[in-house]
Write a structure and sequence with these properties.
By secondary structure, this protein is of the alpha+beta class. It has helices spanning about 10-15, 20-35, 70-80, 85-90; strands at about 40-45, 50, 65-70, 95.
Length: about 110
């Protein structure tokens, strides 16, 4: 049985209302659905983490390709208010591994 999905109406309402936890979870869900795979772990503490992008999957331990950022940065990236390049160069995004740079194609989420 799959994970319970957040409906588009609920997700859009959360974004419009500034509900950060629900907005982050909804946008992570969209990314996970659009870019399936297990090559990169995208973390937005404390609200969620997903595995996405095709490539070599990891099964146990710390994944080799990890991206982590604050919820506010994640929302700005998803909604197009901030570019991956500027967020990464400003140190607002922690990215490690050979596939971490692939995350640029995840944003913005439309």
């Amino acid at each position: 049985m799959g994970k319970k999905q957040i409906g588009d109406e609920v997700g859009a309402s959360a974004i419009a209302d500034g509900d950060v936890p629900m907005s982050v979870r909804y946008l992570l869900q969209l990314i996970e659905n659009r870019f399936p795979g297990g090559a990169v772990e995208l973390r937005v503490p404390p609200y969620g983490a997903i595995q996405c992008l095709e490539g070599l999957d990891h099964r146990r331990g710390t994944p080799p390709n990890v991206i982590e950022m604050a919820p506010e940065v994640f929302l700005e990236l998803c909604l197009g208010g901030l570019s991956w390049e500027s967020a990464h160069s400003a140190g607002q995004v922690l990215a490690s591994g050979t596939l971490a740079s692939e995350a640029a194609k995840l944003f913005p989420v439309s």
